[in-house]
Amino acid sequence: MTENGGSIARSASPARTFNVDLNASGQVHTGVQAWFKILHDNYFPLDVKIGRDFRSGLLTRVDIGNIRACTLKTDPMLTERRASRAMPDGRDFYVVEIPREASVRVAQRGREAIVRPGGFTVVNGAEGYTFETAQHNEVRTLRIPCRSLRARLPSLDDWVATTCDSSQPLVALFLDFAASYGQHGPALLPAHHERLEQQLLDLLAMALLGADDISSETSVRSAHRQRALRAIEQHFCDPALDPSGIARAVGVSERYLQKIFSERQETISATIRERRILEAKRLLANRAQLRLSVTQIAYAVGFSDPAWFSRVFRQATGVSPARYEGDTP
Length: 329
Fold this sequence. Notes:
There is one protein chain. This protein has 329 residues and is of the alpha+beta class. The chain folds into two domains: 2-211, Jelly Rolls, CATH 2.60.120; 219-323, Homeodomain-like (Arc Repressor Mutant, subunit A), CATH 1.10.10.60. It has helices at 22-25, 28-42, 146-152, 169-184, 190-211, 219-235, 243-250, 254-262, 268-285, 287-290, 294-300, 306-317; strands at residues 2-4, 16-21, 47-50, 56-64, 67-74, 77-81, 93-99, 104-108, 111-115, 119-124, 129-133, 137-145, 164-165. It has an eight-stranded antiparallel β-sheet, sandwiched between helices.
């Protein structure tokens, strides 16, 4: 394994390159382990599987503010992220996957996308997912803190493992900006980095929204739903949160807001409950490190009755909170 470049600064860093070449090293096992470590260190813990055709991999990385832009050149491989490895301290990330040479397969939340060059998809690194390239490929990625994207798009998980194609103008605009982001970003003054980051996130949100089929909703209803999801994201840990409170936060009647959610076969109560269960799963998967009991976790995610939390959790996952160890892809 070789590494070139300088030290990492919080606001920006020069490009750094990491690579393995099994043909040159002659030590296949050592080289493969080195490649696994490169992916682990530059993204997050992943289970990596490679086939007989894997001979080399190269990763170039640039950190600009909170966003890490990477270009990955790799022989065929399969990577899997397990939810049990999600970070306990808010350091989870979304990853934008942009294939350049060949299609990739991405699966998450029961969905599977085949993403071709000229498109992109997003995965939530806090949950289990699968990424596979069946042939040599170049893939550009953007690793973005979950909190940064959810602040703009609380319902972002509606789009994970779906394909956004550059035939749509907003997607093409985002891809063009992303391509130059890693190239020119480090050369800008540090004072410009935050503004550049905000523009990238805005374009990504616009690309995702533009790619979504919202024919059943007017733009006004879509905006109301987004505000409701943002309110849920901000307050789901409050046990007093209920549909009427969400409607008041949005500034519409509860009946009207329920109708907006029903158009997607959703309810406000179920959405609040699902968000609480998702957070409970994250905490339970890390409760040994966090030193939290099941009862403490129930209260932490907004359940006022631990017994009711256990029943709801079992209904959602098929296991009790005490036996939960994390999802697998």
